[in-house]
Write a structure and sequence with these properties.
By secondary structure, the protein is mainly alpha-helical. The chain has 5 helices and no strands.
């Protein structure tokens, strides 16, 4: 893995470039982030296609952002622990497990929000809710 040298960004644009490099790095190296990203694209396309309200779209976007953020923090924690430890450490394992648990909670939350937003508009749900 490539070592990054310590240096402070010289301007705001450089700070944003570093942030984008981090996002690109996570998408390139973390399988779960790619899975979350693909799921987010599918959900957002479906949401626009079924015509969710602006508030529902905001809820979906916040849930997706929550998953992305926790996945990125999880990746950062795992990589920092890998750099700091050379052998198995039960506390390092615990820290990684807790970070992964945060991603799981964020993902369950996102699925729940997706479920709450979609059933009334889904053709399957609409057939199940008929009053005739």
């Amino acid at each position: 893995m490539e070592r990054v040298t310590k240096r402070r960004p010289q301007n705001l644009l450089e700070s944003f470039n570093f942030a984008f490099e981090g996002i690109i790095h996570v998408l390139r190296t973390q399988r779960n982030m790619r899975i979350h990203f693909l799921a987010a694209v599918v959900v957002l396309v479906a949401a626009v296609w079924i015509g969710v309200s602006k508030l529902e779209l905001i809820a979906l976007l916040l849930a997706i952002a929550f998953v992305f953020i926790t996945e990125m923090i999880n990746s950062a924690i795992e990589q920092a622990i890998d750099v700091a430890t050379t052998s198995f450490d039960p506390l390092a394992k615990l820290a990684k497990d807790v970070a992964a648990g945060a991603v799981l909670i964020a993902t369950i939350n996102a699925v729940a929000i997706g479920y709450l937003v979609s059933p009334a508009r889904s053709p399957i749900a609409a057939r199940g809710c008929s009053t005739s």
